[in-house]
Amino acid sequence: MTEKTARIDFRENSRNASPAVVAATQNSTRTALRKRAAVVAEFGEERWQELRKAGHEIRMHALTHLDRYLAMVEEKVTAAGGYVHWAKDAEEAREIVLGLATERSVRSIVKVKSMVSEEIDLNPALEARGIRAYETDLGEFIVQLAGQRPSHITSPALHMTKEEVAALFCEKLGIDACPIPEELTEHARLRLRPEFLNADMGISGGNFLIAETGTLLIVTNEGNGRLSTSLPPVHVAVVGIEKVIPDWESAAVLLKLLARSVSGSKITAYSTFITGVREGGPKEFHLVLLDNGRSRILADKVAREALLCIRCGACMNTCPVYNQVGGYAYGAVYQGPIGSMLTPLLLGTGLAGGLPFASTLCGACAELCPVMIPIPEILLHLRKRFVEGDTFESPSVPGILKAMAKLGRIVLGSPTLYHLGGRLGKIFQAPLRRGDWLPSLPPPLNRWTMARPFPAFQGGFRGWFKNRKAAVKQAEGKLHE
Amino acid sequence: MEMVQLFITCMGENLLPDVLKKMVLLLERLGVRCELPEAQTCCGQPFYNSGFQAEGRQMALRWMKAFADTGGYIVAPSGSCVEFVKHRYPAMFPEGSAEQERAVRLAGRVLEFSQFLVNVLKVTDIGASFPHRVACHYPCHLTRGLGVRSEPLALLRAVRGLELIPFDESETCCGFGGIFSVVYPEVSKAMMETKVKNILASGAEAVVVSEPGCLVNIRGGLVKAHSRVRAMHLIEILAEGGST
Ligand code: SF4
User: Does one domain contain both B163 and B67?
Assistant: First the structure.
């Protein structure tokens, strides 16, 4: 997400969504949801709800005391021989990483899957300096090979089928690959092994920063995180400032929530804990703490809860909109419901104001979110920001919509006009009417009728009710005579 | 005798008057006196949820005025409108203001139709008969928003001859979403078509959709697909074969 980003046109993007991407997306999300439901059921619904509450409280507490915990992280990491850098935005973060790399004449980097790295557009910046960065997570490896971007925050390549991946490997790696997941993984592993050994630097993000000991916690399913952060002589971790949590006990709660929500496992396969420089590990450890708009979000009482996110992807898996369009329609690093909150918060509603509207407010996301982020509430808040503006941004809604809303309010707000409207509707619909339906309406209402007919205006209930009341009264009167 | 104020909703009034009439007949049959606050129009949800919160608040004030001086429960054939009044109104006005106080009082009185029947009147069997295979769609705001799940089921189970059959993704949104359906018509269409596909695959003869917006969406989708499956509000099912 850089400054030069253009306005995101979700409608256009959704129209261009490839059916293959959508089909593969639905397939993967369905599996993920099924697994999730199974482990949650096994855990016990009631206990799960308690765990969610605990997770929410931990994250809320950490956010409200962010300054304190960040200071603690800096102190502990420094004491453990690491360096802490502060980056106020994407550009600063890139410069810090590039600076560290060029000072050390780094040629080759192995990377652990990191959303923040996508957010600051790190790979292109490295490539521009002639530094080769290898994504080592299987999904990231695949999208990097394909020259694409991740379409999901936890499963970057979920939009691709195993057949497509095999074809990609044949083409790009010049090997004979079969569409069997285990074999594909093995191919990637073989391809990456020398890179782990050659790399001059490992770059990671971080799932949590444990303040009490200054420990960076990275969870992966493939063990690539451990290799990337231990083999190369330098390890740089770029982490959003909101990732801080108070202590190890908090980490235990959040890991339980995360593993179950991401992939339906009880625990992610590898949890790597890194506290500064350790014996046998990289000689240098650098922690880049990234703000990039987060402290601004923090100042917003409603939107701040979006920062509780632990990037599990469950909201995307369950979102019926995401499942119809795939991740690319969101035109940004974060997709689905979490993207519809974060993208406009990071880029502004001027560029991304359409995303909070890319939701039916069905609430499926909030029902699953392991840290209980009130997602629909925040989307409503951002819709308001787009339309009316607030202390953070001025409105960017087109004037015509504003005028229409005003008019609508006047009509619906006056019983006389409201009833007149109903009557006029009945008159004007006559030529378009086919039985009980209006099969097609003029623009902009054709946006409805392109999918299904609109029911004909009926009305008449109030009159019916009045007559009935009168009749009942009369009957009662007769009864009493 | 129980008395209710009818909250007919703008969508119900203009597009589904038959559902409203049947609701009145059912309630009267159960000995409930129905009143119709004349000044009601729209609760403001379409504005508020589209980001026009100021307009939404003005509509809410109007709605509250229409219902404030009435008595008894306020009953609507829509979980979405009920949820809006129940959960949103109290949060719309400043803490401790007279408006908020009024909103909280009204929020305590408003109920969706099936809630009123099952939880207030304590009836589930009202003598309806509908000998068909019926699938039940769970509208988002009714189910997740209001937490109404068991009530419609209890009512459906008591209907003579009705065979309740499951269908895939019955709790997934149908793609209506108010303004969403016109802001992103292609996505709304795809969601609706998925819903219709699942309904058709279930082999149901009718599908219960107890939410005006979703009903209009799914019913239209079924018509467009030239299907003979009927989308019906719960009220319409309960009015079948009864003595009204
Ligand atoms: S918003 Fe909640 S459900 Fe979505 S990715 Fe973040 S933590 Fe997971």
Answer: no
- Strand ordering across the sheet containing A284-290: A83-87, A284-290, A234-240, A201-204, A108-111, A132-135
Distance (Å, rounded) from C-alpha A306 to C-alpha A389? Answer: 19
Interchain CB distance below 8 Å, A460 and B187: no
B106 shares a domain with B160:
no
> Residues A401-412: pLDDT tens digits?
888 888 888 888
Buried b (16+ CB within 10 A) or exposed e, B119-145: eebeebebebebebebbbbbbbbbbbb
Residue B243 lies in a domain: no
Same domain, B78 and B149: no
**B184 found inside a domain:** yes
Arithmetic mean of pLDDT, A303-309: 98
- Name which of B9, B14, B25 to mutate to probe chain A: the one with the most chain A Cβ atoms within 10 A of its Cβ: B14
A413 and B59 in contact by Cβ < 8 A?
Answer: yes
Nearest to residue A299, comparing CAs of A88, A66, A2? A66
Which residues on A lie below 8 Å from B194 (Cβ)?
Answer: 320, 324
C-alpha dist (Å) from residue A122 to A90, A145, A288, A346 = 9, 16, 13, 17
- Distances in Å between the alpha carbon of A282 and those of A82, A196, A225, A457? 11, 13, 13, 72
Q: In sequence order, which residues have a C-beta less than 8 Å from that of residue A165 and are 6 or more positions away?
A: A142, A157, A177, A179, A184
- Please check whether residue B103 lies inside any domain of the structure: yes
Task: Give the predicted TM-score (pTM) of the model.
Answer: 0.95
In the listed set B94, B120, B146, which residue is the last one of a domain according to the structure? B120
| Ligand 1 atom 8, closest CA | A312
Last residue of a domain, one of B74, B89, B120: B120
Distance CA A291, CA A284 (A): 23
Same domain, B137 and B116: no
The answer to whether residues B99 and B144 belong to one domain is: no
Q: Is A310 in the pocket of ligand 1 (CB under 6 A)?
A: yes
Domains contained in chain B, number? 2
B110-112 and B73-76 strand pairing: parallel
DSSP state of A223: S
Which pair of tokens denotes residue B61? 């004030």
Read out DSSP for B139-193? -HIIIIIS---HHHHHHHHTSBT-EEE--TTTTS--S-TTTHHHHSHHHHHHHHH
A452/B14 touch (CB, cutoff 8 Å), yes or no: no
Q: Before A444, cis peptide (omega within 30)?
A: yes
One domain, residues B12 and B78: yes
Q: What pLDDT, in 10s, does the model give residues A69-110?
A: 999 999 999 999 999 999 999 999 999 999 999 999 999 999
Indicate whether B45 and B143 sit together in one domain: no
- List the domain range (segments joined by +) for residue B204: 133-238
Q: Whole-angstrom Cα distance, residue A270 to residue A266?
A: 12
A473: Cα separation from own chain's centroid: 59
Give the contacts of A41 (CB within 8 A, at least 6 positions apart): none
Question: CB distance B220–A454 less than 8 Å?
Answer: yes
Chain B residues close to A384, C-beta within 8 Å: 51, 53
- Claim to verify: residue B107 and residue B194 sit in the same structural domain: no
Predicted confidence (pLDDT) per residue in A5-32, tens digit: 689 999 999 999 999 999 999 999 999 9
Domains of chain A: 44-292 (3.40.50.10420), 399-480 (no CATH)
Whether the ipTM is more than 0.90: the answer is yes
Q: Which atom of ligand 1 lies at the shortest distance from residue A365's CA?
A: 3
Q: In this structure, are strands A208-210 and A215-220 parallel, antiparallel, or unpaired? A: antiparallel
Q: Is residue B125 part of a domain?
A: no
